[in-house]
Structures are given as structure tokens and as C-alpha cells.
Design goal:
- The protein is an alpha/beta fold.
- It has two domains: 124 residues, Urease, subunit C, domain 1 (Roll); 296 residues, TIM Barrel (Alpha-Beta Barrel).
- 38% of the residues lie in helices and 22% in strands.
- The chain is built from 16 helices and 17 strands.
- The strands form three sheets. Strands 6, 7, 8, 9, 10, 11, 12, 13 and 14 form a nine-stranded parallel sheet that branches.
- It binds guanine and zinc ion.
- The site of zinc ion has 7 residues, from β6.
Length: 433
């Protein structure tokens, strides 16, 4: 067992949902977290922990904020180099920006470089766990798992499968989708911090045969996660309707294949029907809300109030590269902006909601009870926000009347430049240069 460390910091976390509990935001202004073997073993006021553990070395993080590591529930690894293709709606953006780059992932050496850029971007933004949309090429997915393991990232990812309407070189068959998925699962699922996610790209590009191959993997290998896209763009929804005349709506294309359950994360869901929301709530699956992407691609206003009213769990996704970067602080701010702009139809989001959406909500979506907050027994996955002296965020931090005010400012103006250090299971995985 490694020797313990006592972290001294102003920390905040949301172990329960502020959408349900008024007092969900827990803050300790001069707090202590005792960490041993990567696990939080005690938490409380620093002076109490110091008195109880006088000989333990202290890591002093005063002057900033310590938050649980961020959990990104929707982000595309092959798209890191095409961030910023602004001005196109989804299907045109896919054709002109995303898919040409995704085709380059056939080259495993190229894919390895992309994986490194991507993982550096995630960790540098304070993201410690991610549900990652992989590549259409098994070799590129393998490279990603290797790089994630080397970096120490908690990664949930898998082979993206499709058999129509993309580009020929990105298409597969149900048999190959099953065989390549099986090999990757046997090699990587449950290895260290890695988990496998069965990933048809979206019903537009996945025939019933591909969706059945996905379902067969889910049946044959317990504990896998499932992810795809849903109800993002009105033109996309119309094409899906034409391709699946027997389905009442988009969700039913996945439902009919048996793909919707507690371990399913569906990205976007900007235009859901009430029936779809009801089924998602009953299945206890998650909608990954990607507010920057929804704005950048003009997809629409996410109906958060309707999701909450129906009882659908919601977490945050950066959706790089439809999204504009890796920071879940920015996604939280954008969610706040858009809900504000929706007036009566929007949900006022306070700092507690933003922190929850960026951390514990994602951990719950992925069914990872050992991450997402700072509860004793949980892993020490953490991000230390410590702005450079002289920046506006530094001024707010030094003068904030409460930790909650400082947290609000972190969402309002924080960027990866403010991320000083990141830990996963007690290991420092990123230190600002
Ligand atoms: N739908 C299918 N593929 C994609 C993608 O790469 N990005 C987004 N935003 N939506 C998609
Ligand atoms: Zn996406």
C-alpha cells in the first residue's frame, strides 16, 4: 500500500443531484481529503484531519478550487483535429469535415497520433473519465485503448459501426462488426480502467443487421456500455423515419434491437417525442447533452425541462469535434446560457447543477459509483483549478464571498489554462507546463 497524502484545499462536490436535493452542493472552505492507494479514506475540515493524521505529508492546494474530475459522456476521438468546422448543419458537417478525417484513421500510426492529441486535450481540460466515440477501424480503436492505458485515463469506448450512407471505406458488415467487436472486448473490456462501449454511429448509417450485431455483443458480453446518437437534427430525423418505416420514432430503431437499458447513453436528443422520453426514463438510460455542439451545428435548443419532467437522466458531453473544445466548464456555461434563453421552457441552472452535470451525472450515466464526487471510499479523481496571478478568475477567487461564488466564476470564465493539475486514482496525470 502506498503511503497516504493529505490534500488541503477549498473543495466542492455534488454527491447527489441538485435537480432532486436542494442541498446537493457540498463545499469545504479549508478542507482536507486523505488519500491512500488512490482512494479517499477520510474527508473533513483540514484542521480535524491534520490533528488525526499529524505525520502524513500535506499537498497544499489553497488559493484555487479542487473539484472531482470531469466526466465527459460524449466525445469523438477521431475528430480532435477537425474542431472548428463552424457554419454547417449536421449532415453537411459530417460529409465535409468529420468523415474525411475519420477515413484517415485506417492508418494505425496516424490514429495513434490522433489518440495522443485527443487524450492530452481531455486531461488538460480536467476530464478524468470519458465515454469516447471511437473509430470505424478496429486498429485505431486498439491504438486508443493503448494510449488511454498509458495516460491513465478512464476510458469507455469501442468500434464505431455503420453499413450505409457514410463513405464506402467506413462501412462494415454485421458479421465483421460482431467479430471485430468481440476481439476488442476480449482484449480490453475490464482491463485496468478500460471498458467497452458498443457503438453504432446512428440509425441513419446502421441497418437493422448492424443493430442486431450490436445487440448480440451486448447479450454475449455482460457489463458493456452502449452509446449512439439520437434526435439531433431535423433532417437526420426525417431520413431515419424513411429508413425505418416500421418504427414509431428514432428511439424505437434502437429499442427494437434491444439496445436501450441502464447502460445506454444517447447523445443530443434535441427533438424527442414524449413517448421517447417516457421509454428512456423507464429504461433508466441517459441523454448526453452537448450544448456547444448543438449551437455550433444549429441543431436546436435541448429541452432539459422535458427530460427532467419525464425523469430522464441527463449528463454533459463536449461532442468534440462538432463541439468546440474539451472543457466541461464551457459546456456547463453554454448549457446555462441556452436554458436562460429558452425563457419559460428553460431550466435555471445554478453552479450546483453545472458541477453535477459535469461530474456525478456522468459517473451515474456510466454506472461508475467509485468516481464523480469526493465521498470516502471513492477514487481520488480530481481537478485543481488555479488561475494564473493577474487573471480575472484569480481576482474572483481571491475575493469571492463563498466557495459557491468561486465555482460560478470557474464556469463563467474558466478554461483549460486554469487547470493546474489533474489526478486519476491519486496519480497525477496532468500538470500544467
Ligand atoms: N451523428 C452521427 N455522427 C455524428 C458525429 O460525428 N457528430 C455528431 N454531432 N452527430 C453525429
Ligand atoms: Zn457525437
Amino acid at each position: 500500500m502506498t503511503s497516504p497524502t493529505l490534500y488541503r484545499a477549498t473543495f466542492l462536490h455534488t454527491p447527489v443531484s441538485p435537480f432532486t436535493y436542494e442541498d446537493a452542493l457540498r463545499a469545504e472552505e479549508d478542507g482536507g481529503l486523505l488519500v491512500q492507494g488512490g482512494v479517499i479514506t477520510a474527508r473533513g475540515p483540514y484542521s480535524d484531519l491534520r490533528a488525526a493524521h499529524p505525520d502524513v505529508p500535506v499537498t497544499d492546494l489553497r488559493g484555487g478550487l479542487l473539484l472531482p474530475g470531469f466526466v465527459d459522456t460524449h466525445v469523438h476521438y477521431p475528430q480532435v483535429r477537425v474542431i472548428g468546422g463552424l457554419g454547417l448543419p449536421l449532415l453537411d458537417w459530417l460529409d465535409q469535415c468529420a468523415l474525411p478525417e475519420e477515413a484517415r484513421m485506417a492508418d494505425a500510426a496516424y490514429a495513434r497520433g490522433v489518440a495522443r492529441d485527443f487524450i492530452r486535450g481531455l486531461l488538460g481540460a480536467g476530464t478524468t473519465t470519458a465515454l469516447v466515440f471511437g473509430s470505424h477501424f478496429a486498429g485505431a480503436v486498439h491504438e486508443f485503448f493503448e494510449e488511454a492505458q498509458t495516460a491513465g485515463l478512464r476510458a469507455v469506448t469501442g468500434l464505431v459501426v455503420s453499413d450505409r450512407l457514410l463513405r464506402e471505406e467506413l462501412h462494415t458488415t454485421p458479421e465483421r462488426a460482431y467479430a471485430e467487436g468481440k476481439a476488442l472486448i476480449q482484449r480490453w473490456h475490464g482491463q485496468g480502467r478500460a471498458l467497452y462501449a458498443v457503438t453504432p454511429r446512428f440509425s441513419l448509417s446502421a441497418s437493422e443487421g448492424i443493430l442486431e450485431a450490436c445487440a448480440a455483443l451486448m447479450r454475449d458480453f455482460p457489463g458493456l456500455r452502449f452509446t449512439s446518437h439520437i434526435n439531433e437534427n431535423t433532417r437526420e430525423i426525417q431520413v431515419v423515419r424513411e429508413l425505418f418505416p416500421g418504427a414509431r420514432d428514432y428511439l424505437e430503431t434502437y429499442e427494437q434491437a434491444g439496445l436501450i437499458g441502464r447502460h445506454s447513453v444517447l447523445a443530443h436528443n434535441v427533438h424527442p417525442s414524449d413517448r421517447e422520453l417516457g421509454v428512456m426514463a423507464d429504461a433508466r438510460c441517459t441523454a448526453a447533452h452537448c450544448p456547444c455542439s448543438n449551437a455550433a451545428l444549429g441543431s436546436g435548443f435541448f429541452p432539459l425541462r422535458r427530460h427532467l419532467h419525464a425523469g430522464v437522466h441527463v449528463a454533459l458531453g463536449s461532442d468534440v469535434g462538432g463541439g468546440t473544445g474539451f472543457s466541461l466548464l464551457k459546456e456547463g456555461l453554454q448549457a446555462h446560457f441556452l436554458q436562460n434563453l429558452m425563457g419559460e421552457r428553460g431550466v435555471p441552472l445554478r453552479p450546483a447543477h453545472l458541477l453535477y452535470l459535469a461530474t456525478q451525472a456522468g459517473a451515474h450515466a456510466l454506472d461508475l459509483p467509485h468516481v464523480g464526487a469526493f465521498e470516502p471510499g471513492q477514487q481520488f479523481d480530481a481537478v485543481h483549478l488555479s488561475p494564473h496571478a493577474g487573471t480575472p478568475l484569480d481576482a474572483v477567487f481571491r475575493h469571492a464571498s463563498s466557495a459557491e461564488r468561486a465555482l460560478a466564476a470557474a464556469f463563467a470564465t474558466g478554461t483549460p489554462a486554469d487547470v493546474a493539475r489533474v489526478w486519476i486514482a491519486g496519480d497525477a496525470v496532468h500538470t500544467r507546463a
